[in-house]
Amino acid sequence: MNEAFEQLINSFIDHEVGIAPHFLNEKLAEGLRQNINHLQHDDLMADAGIGNETGKERAHEMRKDKIYWMDESHDNIFEQEFLQMTGDFIRYLNRTCYTGINACEFHYAVYEPGSFYRRHRDQFRNDDQRKFSFISYLNTDWLESDGGNLLLYHPDSVQSVSPESGTTVLFKSDGLEHEVSLANRRRMSVTGWLKQV
Ligand code: OGA
Ligand code: MN
Questions:
Q1: What is the CATH number of the domain that holds 182?
Q2: For ligand 1, atom 6, which residue shows the shortest CA distance?
């Protein structure tokens, strides 16, 4: 597993955006997809907010994804495996890069066709606990025509990442502005933040 950890960290150091195409194995990705299907079936995926106190209506113009927060206490082997692995990654990152991360939070996200998340940064204006943004994608055979790419705004270029199953990205939460372009196909992911609290 350290190979994927190294790949994510090294590409982050070299290019400001870490990308590891096979960070999640396909069995784990499939399990997390099934979890999203069950959560949606049980009507547990809810409209996502923005900031930490903005009204729902403004949020809805910004983003149309639905989310559900993970929790170690959930009795689910795939969720527990994901949180175990991200915990291992955080320990590895702290050990190799002295990052001092001591908390994290992750949610499932689903973008139904027609959904997007407009250009934004991940740190709240009144709260700088979020240090790194971490996103794992869950979509098999994603095509360019499916839209729904992650677009990252570098000073002189825009980087596009396809949300292909297993691919994981890492970037600083107070760093690059980014957006999710309009998705033409149902798009699933797990998004989280590595924090200092
Ligand atoms: C977010 C976000 C990007 C993505 O949830 O804050 O920017 O590719 N997600 O899902
Ligand atoms: Mn974001």
A1: 2.60.120.620
A2: 122
- Whole domain around residue 173: which residue ranges? 2-195
Does the C-beta of 159 come closer than 6 Å to ligand 1? Answer: no
Domain total of the chain:
1
pLDDT digits (tens, 9 = 90+) for 38-80: 999 999 999 988 877 666 667 888 999 999 999 999 999 999 9
CB neighbours of 27 closer than 8 A, spacing ≥ 6? none
45 lines ligand 1 (CB under 6 A): no
Long-range contacts of 22-25 (CB under 8 A, 24+ apart): 22/166, 22/167, 23/136, 23/166, 23/167, 23/168, 24/82, 24/136, 24/138, 24/165, 24/166, 24/168, 25/166
Ligand closest to 147 (CA) is 1
Does this model's pTM top 0.85? yes
What is the average pLDDT across 18-46?
A: 98
